[in-house]
Amino acid sequence: MRTFVSAVAVLIGLALAAVAVPAMWVDRNIVQQDGFVAFTAPLGKDPVFQERLAAAAVGSLGAERIPAALSGLVTPILESAARSLTSMPGYPEAWTETLRKSHQLNFADPGAPPAETGPATSLTLDLAPLVGLVAKQVADATTLPLEAPEQLLITIGQPEHRQLLDRVSAFAPMGYALAVGALIAFALAFVAARRRWTVLTGIGVGGLVLAGAWKLAADAVAGAVTATSSGNEVAEIFKSEFVAAAGSSFGQWTLVAAVAGGVLLAAGLVLRVVGGRRGA
C-alpha cells in the first residue's frame, strides 16, 4: 500500500509540475507588467527594429499635423529624427513607457482604476511615447507646438489571440499554488515510500521527460505564433524578436529542469547502490 501511495503521489506531483512551470514563466515574464517590461526592453536595441520604430513614429507626424508653410523647415528635422531616434537621450524611457502602455492595453489589471480607453480587442503595441519624443524634438527646434497623438496602436495579433491571452493570463498566477502542490506531493511520496531511492529515480526520470515535453510544446507554440501575420512590418519584427527571446528564456527554465531531473536520477541510483551494498 505504501508503494502504491508513493507512486501515485509522484505521478500527481509531476502532473502538477508540468502545468506549474510554464504557468509561472508566463506570469513572471508576460502577465506581470514589471516582468514584461524587463523581458521585452532589450528588443528595442535591435538595429532593424529600431529603424522600423523610428519610421513608424516619424510617419505618424504626417503633413496633416504640420502647416504647409513650415513643411520645408520641419521635414528635414523629421528625417533627422528618424535617423537618430534611438540615440536621443529620452529614448530608453520612451521605449519603456511604450512597453508599459502596451501592457496596460493588452492586460486588464483588476486592481487598477478604469482606463480612459478600454482594453484593446486585439494584441497591440502603442508607440505614442516614441512619437511624443519626436514631436518634442521638432518643437524644441522650431518652436512649433506640434501635438503627438495620444495613441499610435499597431496590431500584433488577432482578436482570437487576445482572447487566448486573456484566458492564459487569468490562469497563469495559479502556477505558484500548483508548484506548492507538486512539492507537497513529492514530500508525501518520499515519506510513504518503502524504497526512497525509487522516489528520487522516478522524479528524476519524470523531470527529464517534462523538460523534453516543454521543449516540444514551446517549439510548437513558437511556430504557431510565427506563422500568423499581422500585415505590419513593425509588428512582425517585434513578434519575431519576442518569440526568439521567449524561446531562449523558457529554454533556460527547461534546462534547469533537465539538470535537476538528471541530478535526482543519479542520486536515486547512487542511493540504490549504497543501500544494496549495506544489504538494505
Query: What letter string, H or E per element, gives the SSE order?
Result: HHHHHEHEHHHH
**Number of DSSP helical runs:** 10
Profile the largest sheet: 2 strands, antiparallel
Q: What share of residues are in beta strands?
A: under 5%
Which word captures the global form? elongated
Radius of gyration: 26 Å
Distance between the termini: 20 Å
- How would you classify the helix and strand content by structural class? mainly alpha
Question: How many domains make up the 3D coordinates?
Answer: 2
Strand order of the largest sheet: 1-2
How many strand segments? Answer: 2
Q: Average pLDDT across residues?
A: 81
What does this structure look like?
With 280 residues, the protein is mostly helical. The chain folds into two domains: 134 residues, no CATH class; 123 residues, no CATH class. Helix content is 73%, strand content 2%. It has ten helices and two strands. A two-stranded antiparallel sheet has the order 1-2. The longest helix has 45 residues.
